[in-house]
Amino acid sequence: MTKTNFAKDQLKSIVERIERLEEEKQALAEDIKEVYAEAKGNGFDTKILRKVVRIRKMDAAQRSTEEEMLDLYLSAVGSG
């Protein structure tokens, strides 16, 4: 196998892997959408639920820094 053929095969393999992962990502996105719809159907506020999920992904220092900045900005505009 020539170097060029190897590179083509390798590139094709990479592209196919990315395509499969994109399909999996889309399926997961649909699953997540369904869970949010279920939560909404049970009376939960999905906007707040999304914030909770986002906050839980943060480490403690990152969360603290964001909360401090939010408080600072709110105080600066007279809403805090």
Fold and architecture overview:
- The chain is mostly helical and 80 residues long.
- The protein has two domains: 1-43; 45-80.
- The protein is 85% helix and 0% strand.
- It is built from three helices and no strands.
- The mean pLDDT is 95.
Strand count: 0
What percentage of residues falls in helices of 4 or more residues?
over 70%
Instruction: Label the overall shape.
Output: elongated
Main beta-sheet annotation: none
Blueprint (SSEs and pairs):
Elements: H1 3-41, H2 46-57, H3 60-76
Concise synopsis of the structure shown:
This protein is mainly α and 80 residues long.
Keywords:
mainly alpha, 80 residues
